[in-house]
Design goal:
This protein is α/β, with parallel strands linked by helices. The protein contains 27 helices and 33 strands. It has six domains: 71 residues, GIY-YIG endonuclease (3-Layer(aba) Sandwich), CATH 3.40.1440.60; 54 residues, no CATH class; 75 residues, no CATH class; 179 residues, P-loop containing nucleotide triphosphate hydrolases (Rossmann fold, 3-Layer(aba) Sandwich), CATH 3.40.50.300; 184 residues, P-loop containing nucleotide triphosphate hydrolases (Rossmann fold, 3-Layer(aba) Sandwich), CATH 3.40.50.300; 91 residues, Alpha-Beta Plaits, CATH 3.30.70.600. The strands form eight sheets. Strands 14-15-13-16-17-12-18 form a seven-stranded parallel beta sheet, with helices on both faces. Strands 19-29-28-20-27-26 form a six-stranded parallel beta sheet, with helices on both faces. A five-stranded antiparallel beta sheet has the order 2-1-4-3-5. The structure holds adenosine-5'-triphosphate (ATP) and zinc ion (ZN) (2 copies).
Length: 801
């Protein structure tokens, strides 16, 4: 038999299956989707079996060395999906297979021989010397051969495992069970000599509790040691075996069981539509548009319940930062042990264990961040993507996939619906819903029947003119004081992205924009120049405002730490908690800050986008946005959309329970439509307005984008290669495609590498992938060196830096 293997060598020449002979003794073992070790040139490397065939064209086919898995780690569907992903993203097939698996399975493996029985045959006991695990090296040094190992494995004495760090990936325990039934046990106890009290007690124990019990627990409960257990095991009165236990990251937490509430009319309507598609096994895509607090999560959960009732499985994606303990609690509370949770705060071992629960079909629901879309379920009945507009669903390195696209592809494979949910859908998704490609479902009302909190817009230009040079407006300060007196809490939001990149007049709020691209120009400190990174238009940094001639024009931005200092000076008695990348670096810090705030150990929570999502505290009655403009003026055509989404999300944090909430938004551009319309929660009007600009400037959803970024330690090299690429694309793509560039990337230098880019805007370019593949092939040799050329291609860029 021949195994076709994708080897772990990500290059163009190796981007195809290689044939290996399956040795006689492994024919029963090797299966499609397993990892194997194969000889490759002088090395031995890892690979995935993607096919098994009877014969090969290859003349001198080498045998594969080893099989790493007992059960396949990739299903046939996932292997197929990997192929699709490779063609979509122009990645290597191996990279696409790797991206679907937990880290532990990709890292360097280590072979180990595990003891599976308390008592091994004499010759093995001699080798193990009481230990539980032998390294492969020790085994190899022993006199035993492969077929003997196999015999012991078959008999259940030993197991062969492949581990990264054995301590971390798996835990095992010894379990004891009685070797006979109750009656026989009683007879035996009668025969035991009276001085063997402890042995008697051990046997006694199983009369009351005949179930298997961990050895450790048994010994403590009976109050004895191994010494009295051993003779009983030896005589076969009791049996011992080894059991793998999966770590539960939520061990020790208890989750109160919740019951589904009866749904409102709107919720019921949405759910009925979803469930109908589940039953018809139809891969419909639904866009569930519901304001914050409208009960979307409840619709997800009850729909999932229907899927489980049918014996099928469900994936629910949430953005990493929304995967809060509160969220996990809701799902665990409803579905108990049927849920696995996958997110980046887990250790590699914990992630692997959660993944194993899915693989072993111990769970039917997975709640997780982006990569959970690859959960190895076999009977998917529903995929849900909450907060579907979040850009974190796009992977930004290596295999640049969007979880939404993968979800739709998997749904087609399984014949199941996809639900995209959001209070502020992405323009792409809403446009598709308008065209009827997606089915629109709406939840227009908040559950608590409260109106959305009132939003006050503060014009920071006016504050300046009145002599207030601080970053806190008079009104915001008063409202913060008021909350302090009433014992209520406030949340202050500061966007730190876009720090110091755009240039704005403090007097009139004018921001310097590219005349051709409708995005703000980026300040490059070194040359004192302003550049548009879409089209490379540039001009010198102005010394006075082109609008009002004020000299207060400068680049913009402040960090959270600075803001905290100012705030403390302004309101010395306030207890402030700061939440940003710096204060949440340690594991558990995020949760700790939220718990402190929830316990009212602070009056003000100051933070970055991290605090925009998922917060649900009844005592928060004021939300302040310090600088709405910092997001609005990112050099990104989605800046208005992001601003609208963020302001809506942030506002949704106030007044979620009985107490009424209030929102203050400080801005230098209070008249901007995204700020205006966010303050009245008018998504549809915002959509209509934003679509006009997208159409006018040829952006998605009217046009598609492709971003090709070139980097090189030498700036001329980077520029020159980008120029050639742009030229080649201009020549080969159709007339209707705009090829923009070469242009310096907004982050012009990272790690001493210079970065240039070419942007393609197009309607339909069926041959685009082919041309770009040719470019990549052409430069392949130059890209081999660590320190040489790098070219990355992003077919649906969200990060334009
Ligand atoms: N049918 C219902 N009956 C009673 N309470 C409900 C119902 N549906 C939802 N709720 C409750 O209303 C609150 C808001 O619902 P939920 O969190 O599902 O809304 P959401 O749209 O997901 O919110 P957000 O987008 O702001 O996170 C929750 O406390 C939830 O338990
Ligand atoms: Zn001005
Ligand atoms: Zn431009």
């Amino acid at each position: 038999m021949i195994a076709r293997v994708i080897v772990d060598v990500p290059t163009n020449q190796t981007n195809r299956p290689f044939d290996y002979l399956i040795p006689e003794e492994l024919t029963e073992v090797v299966d499609i989707g397993m990892r194997v070790i194969v000889p490759f040139g002088p090395r031995k490397i890892m690979g995935y079996v993607v096919d098994i065939e009877d014969k090969t064209e290859v003349e001198k086919v080498k045998p594969l060395e080893e099989v790493l898995d007992v059960t396949p780690v990739l299903t046939p569907e996932l292997l197929q999906l990997g192929k699709w992903l490779a063609s979509q993203t122009l990645s290597f097939y191996i990279s696409c297979l790797q991206v679907m698996l937990p880290q532990v399975l990709k890292a360097k493996y280590k072979k180990e021989i595990w003891r599976m029985e308390e008592h091994l045959p004499e010759e093995l006991e001699h080798l193990f010397q009481g230990r539980d695990v032998l390294s492969n090296e020790e085994w190899e040094a022993s006199p035993y051969k492969y077929h003997q190992l196999k015999k012991w494995v078959d008999e259940g004495s030993l197991d062969v495992r492949y581990e990264v760090k054995s301590k971390e990936t798996k835990r095992k325990i010894t379990v004891i069970e009685p070797g006979m039934d109750e009656r026989e046990l009683e007879e035996l106890i009668a025969d035991i000599p009276p001085q063997a009290k402890k042995q008697k007690a051990l046997l006694d124990f199983f009369i009351d509790y005949p179930d298997p019990i961990p050895k450790k627990d048994l010994l403590t409960q009976v109050g004895t040691t191994d010494a009295s257990l051993k003779p009983l095991l030896k005589k076969g009165h009791l049996h011992s075996y080894t059991q793998e236990i999966l770590r539960d990251p939520y061990e020790g937490h208890t989750f109160d069981k919740t019951n589904p509430p009866s749904l409102t009319t709107h919720q019921k309507h949405a759910m009925d539509r979803i469930v109908a598609s589940v039953k018809e096994e139809h891969p419909d895509v639904f866009l569930l548009h519901g304001v914050t607090g409208s009960g979307k999560t409840e619709v997800y959960m009850q729909s999932i319940q229907e899927v489980l009732n049918r014996g099928e499985e469900a994936i629910m994606l949430v953005p990493e930062i929304a995967l809060t303990p509160q969220m996990v609690e809701r799902f665990k509370g409803r579905f108990g042990s049927k849920v696995a949770v996958l997110h980046s705060a887990l250790s590699a071992g914990e992630k692997y264990d959660e993944w194993r629960k899915i693989q072993r079909q111990d769970v039917q629901v997975v709640v997780g961040a982006r990569s959970a879309i690859f959960a190895p379920f076999k009977k998917l009945g529903l995929i849900i993507i909450d907060e579907e507009h979040e850009t974190s669903y796009k992977q930004e390195d290596r295999t640049r996939y969007h979880a939404r696209d993968v979800a739709i592809q998997r749904a087609a494979n399984h014949g199941c619906p996809v639900v995209l949910g959001s209070a502020t859908p992405s323009l792409e998704s809403f446009a598709r819903a308008q065209k009827g490609n997606y089915h629109l479902l709406e939840l227009p009302e908040r559950m608590n029947e409260q109106a959305m909190p009132n939003v006050e817009l503060i014009d920071m230009r006016a504050e300046l003119h009145e002599g207030n040079r601080s970053m806190f407006s008079q009104s915001l300060k008063e409202k913060l004081d008021e909350r302090l007196q009433k014992g209520e809490q406030s949340v202050l939001f500061l966007n730190r992205r876009g720090y110091s990149t755009f240039v704005m007049c403090r007097d009139c709020g004018h921001v310097v924009e590219c005349p051709y691209c409708d995005i703000s120009m980026t300040y490059h400190r070194k040359q004192e120049q302003l550049k548009c990174h879409y089209c490379s238009y540039e001009k010198p940094m102005p010394t006075e405002c082109p609008e009002c001639e004020s000299k207060t024009i400068r680049y913009f931005g402040t960090g959270t730490q600075k803001v905290e200092e100012h705030l403390q000076q302004l309101i010395p008695e306030a207890r402030i908690l700061r939440m940003d990348v710096d204060t949440t670096r340690r594991k558990g810090a995020h949760e700790k800050i939220l718990t402190q705030f929830g316990n009212h150990e602070a009056d003000i929570l100051l933070g970055t986008q991290m605090i925009a999502k998922g917060l649900d505290f009844g005592n928060v009655t004021l939300v302040g946005v310090l600088a709405a403009d910092s997001l609005l003026n990112l050099p990104d055509f989605r800046a208005s959309e992001k601003t609208f989404q963020l302001l809506t999300q942030v506002s949704g944090r106030a007044g979620r329970h009985e107490k009424e909430g209030e929102v203050v938004v400080q801005t230098y551009t209070p008249d901007h439509y995204s700020i205006q319309l966010a303050s009245t929660y008018d998504f549809e009007k915002f959509y209509a307005e934003e679509m006009k600009y997208r159409k006018m400037f040829h952006y998605p959803p009217f046009y598609y984008l492709t971003l090709v970024t070139v980097s090189h330690p030498n700036t001329f090299q980077a520029q020159e290669v980008t120029r050639k690429i742009a030229q080649y694309l201009k020549k080969n793509l159709s007339e209707t495609a705009d090829v923009l560039g070469p242009t310096p990337s907004p982050l012009e230098r990272i790690n001493n590498r210079y970065r240039y880019q070419t942007m393609i805007k197009y309607k339909a370019e069926p041959e685009q992938h082919k041309f770009i593949q040719r470019i990549l092939n052409y430069y392949e040799n130059d890209m081999k060196e660590q320190n040489g050329l790098q070219i990355t291609v992003d077919f649906q860029p969200y990060q334009l830096m």
